[in-house]
From TrEMBL:
The keyword DNA-binding applies. PROSITE patterns: HTH_ARAC_FAMILY_1, HTH_ARAC_FAMILY_2. InterPro entries: ChrB_C, Homeodomain-like_sf, HTH_AraC, HTH_AraC-typ_CS, Tscrpt_reg_AraC-type_HTH. This is Chromate resistance protein. PANTHER family: ARAC-FAMILY TRANSCRIPTIONAL REGULATOR, HTH-TYPE TRANSCRIPTIONAL ACTIVATOR RHAS. Keywords: DNA-binding, Transcription, Transcription regulation. It comes from Chitinophaga horti. Residues 174-273 form the HTH araC/xylS-type domain.
């Protein structure tokens, strides 16, 4: 059976093919095409479309397509159910849903950066999700820092980091703000930014919130994207779906939810008032 979705996958459009091949359709052929060709190619190739607006297999409320596939096909595997909030949190930028969500997003973004061919990316992603499934099945209670001295070392390190706060802002902070502002409509990762700034990525990740209003990289990026979306709303030629993709959101549902959180009302209501001014 053929399954089709939009090109340039990162989270849901890798996680869903993994779920389809492992639990729904082992011989599934996954097809990636440009966003505006998904429905026409689905009809032409007799393929099932997924993870785009307006089809059955897509986001609903706060849940992503991975969640819907689990429900539709009545998948009860305990490890898959453990994976669901991790995938959901990574796909919707809600890293508070599961401790592993931020890591899954970082790995997925890096993988997409390294592999520009979508089918090659999918094959690499299958390995990642097989590994995540093994962790969910057998290793959830395992920890890297098993020995007491490792915990003590981490405690000392955390105290040292706290004592360093309040110093003068480093020069790289303003440079980073400028880079984010200039590339807000593209895919940004801390790894790429650390290379541009010639800063250790672990250091950048640790120090980021200290200089960006106590926001994580993901929170700050979402805030900047919402501000960019408001600018685009002033042009009636852009649909809300287009604005969602132009500002880096996974789909219009994701964009609408984050916009409401930041602005207190839906994008359509906000735009209606904006254009009346």
């Amino acid at each position: 059976m053929k399954w089709i979705t939009r090109e340039h996958p990162k989270i849901d459009r890798i996680a869903c093919p993994w779920l389809i091949r492992r639990f729904i359709d082992p011989a599934a052929e996954i097809i990636y095409v440009p966003f505006d060709q998904v429905l026409s190619q689905a009809a032409a190739q007799d393929a099932t479309p997924f993870d785009i607006p307006g089809v059955e297999l897509t986001h609903y409320g706060d849940e992503c397509t991975f969640d819907y596939l689990i429900k539709k096909y009545a998948i009860t595997d305990a490890a898959v159910l453990s994976m669901a909030p991790i995938v959901r949190g990574a796909d919707t930028d809600r890293h508070d849903m599961a401790p592993q969500s931020a890591g899954l997003w970082a790995i997925s973004a890096g993988l997409a950066h390294n592999f520009t061919n979508d089918l090659e990316l999918l094959e690499q992603g299958m390995v990642i999700y097989d590994a995540l499934y093994s962790w969910a099945s057998h290793l959830q209670q395992e920890k890297h820092t098993q020995q007491p001295f490792e915990q003590q070392l981490l405690a000392v390190l955390n105290e040292a980091l706290k004592s360093g706060r309040g110093r003068r802002m480093p020069a790289w902070v303003q440079e980073l703000k400028n880079i984010i502002q200039d590339h807000i409509d593209t895919s940004l990762t801390l790894k790429e930014l650390s290379q541009d700034l010639d800063i250790n990525p672990s250091y950048l990740s640790r120090e980021f919130s200290k200089h960006f209003d106590n926001l994580s990289f993901g929170e700050y990026l979402r805030k900047q994207r919402i501000e960019k979306a408001v600018e685009l709303m002033r042009n009636p030629a852009h649909s809300l779906t287009e604005i969602a993709y132009l500002t880096g959101f996974s789909d219009q549902s994701h964009f609408s939810r984050i916009f409401r959180q930041h602005m207190g009302e839906s994008p359509s209501d906000y735009r209606r008032k904006l254009l009346k001014k």
